[in-house]
Amino acid sequence: MTCFATNTLTGQLADLELRHRRRARAEDRIRHAKDTGLAKLPLHAFAANRIWIEVVSLALEVIAWAQMLALGGHQARRWEPKRLRVRLFWAGARVVRTGRRCWVRFDASWPWSGVLVAGIVRLRGLSGVP
Length: 130
What we know:
The protein contains 4 helices and 2 strands; from the N terminus they run H-H-H-E-E-H. Helix content is 57%, strand content 9%. The longest helix has 26 residues. Helix 1 crosses helix 2. With 130 residues, it is mainly alpha-helical. The N and C termini lie far apart (48 Å). Strands 1-2 form a two-stranded antiparallel sheet.
């Protein structure tokens, strides 16, 4: 059961709930940005830190799109950047060249390699690349 206490004079319950969810989502994005590298600016110059902030925001966009497109049918879509980093981004892999193609072979003993491979297959299906 949820209770809303507000001084808003107009609006229905659905409007209030939508506003609350948007606020919570914005706070989640801020927390994710801090986890990704925005908590501490590593450089001394203002211009260099501006570049750092742009890189962090680009990384957050790539993570958000990858979760939406590649991990849509899995619980990994809701994972935070720290969990993604530990489970998917640090997966052991090897680049294998056969003929004229390069393949990435993930370690079969890694517990999350199936999720990673399924996400890559899903992305390849969306792009139309065989």
